[in-house]
């Protein structure tokens, strides 16, 4: 049984402008975390299968998800890519790693979120909940625990996504958003991620 509160609290969240930043520390060396984030074989085990010309200037495609261009790759410290999901506008995802006293600090920033209507409706949780799930999946992977294939539809996952949406709502308020708007956006995000069960 997963300690959902501990997993939610393991992630630090910030919102600035129309960008989200999520940070988590991993009990693993920077090289191992870097490889888990960039090696196609490992990515497929905890995130999604990836194809493309995986080098700076090349392109990538995550199966059933986003694709884009690899803008910057400086192992084992910085990976910066454009992020294009469906017909939406391009945004930018940057992953930064640095060693710390308790392992490797990973900081993920998703910026240039230009769809203002989407942001106004759902706030930072629209992308933040997905990144929280990603950071949790990475934590399970580098600690040697697999993520069960059906976990995403489990009660634990539903609780995690609910608490994640709330946490992004709090980060939105801290960034200066009107509390009523931030809470409403977080609730709309939660409703998208945590659909009623049959």
TrEMBL record:
Belongs to the AHA1 family. InterPro entries: ASHA1/2-like_C, START-like_dom_sf. Residues 27-139 form the Activator of Hsp90 ATPase homologue 1/2-like C-terminal domain. It holds the Pfam family AHSA1. This is SRPBCC family protein. It comes from Amycolatopsis acididurans. Signal peptide: none annotated.
């Amino acid at each position: 049984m997963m300690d959902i509160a501990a997993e939610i609290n393991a992630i630090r969240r910030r919102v600035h402008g129309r960008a989200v930043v999520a940070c988590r520390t991993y009990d693993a060396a920077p090289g191992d975390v870097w490889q888990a984030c960039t090696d196609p074989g490992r990515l497929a085990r905890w995130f999604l299968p990836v194809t493309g010309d995986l080098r700076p200037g090349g392109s990538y495609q995550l199966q059933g998800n986003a694709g884009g261009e690899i803008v910057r790759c400086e192992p084992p410290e910085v990976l910066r890519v454009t992020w294009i999901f469906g017909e939406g506008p391009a945004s930018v995802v940057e992953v930064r790693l640095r060693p710390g006293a308790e392992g490797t600090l990973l900081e993920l920033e998703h910026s240039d979120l230009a769809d203002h209507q989407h942001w106004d409706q759902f706030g930072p949780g629209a992308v933040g909940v997905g990144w929280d799930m990603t950071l949790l999946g990475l934590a399970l992977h580098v600690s040697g625990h697999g993520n069960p294939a059906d976990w995403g539809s489990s009660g634990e996952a539903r609780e995690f996504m609910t608490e994640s949406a709330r946490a992004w709502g709090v980060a939105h308020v801290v960034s200066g958003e009107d509390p009523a708007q931030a809470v409403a956006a977080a609730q709309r995000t939660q409703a998208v991620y945590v659909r009623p069960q049959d």
